[in-house]
Amino acid sequence: MTEPRERSFRTPAIILKRRDFGEADRLLTLLTPHHGKIDAIAKGARKLNSTKTGHVELYTRADMLIHRGRDLAIVVQAEMTAPYLPLREDLARGAYAGYCVELLDRLTAEGDVDSYRLYMLLDETLVRLSIDQDARMAARYFELKLLDMVGYRPELSECVVGHEPLLPEDQYFSAGEGGIVCPRHVAQAGSVMPISMEGLKLLRHLQRSSWKAVAALKVPPAAHDDAERVLLGYITLLIERRLQSVDFIRQVRRLE
Question: Could you tell me which residues are beta bridge partners of residue 55?
Answer without folding.
Answer: none
